[in-house]
Amino acid sequence: MRVDSRDLEVQLKDIDPPAILDLEPVSGALRVSTAMTTLELLHALRAGGISIGPKALIHLPSVCCGGCSG
Prior knowledge:
By secondary structure, this protein is an alpha+beta fold. 30% of the residues lie in helices and 11% in strands.
């Protein structure tokens, strides 16, 4: 499935402006850094052309130490 990453980015940033998305070139995995809830993220992904269920998401803990205040 080919998804326009610009459309997807618009959908994500419409809900969470500082959201970051990155497509891993080797595996094709889509990485998203966001403050959205699972349901919000799934809705934004679907609106951007990716229809997956919650079990397809892999949640990772934040690595932010807060040191840069960002």
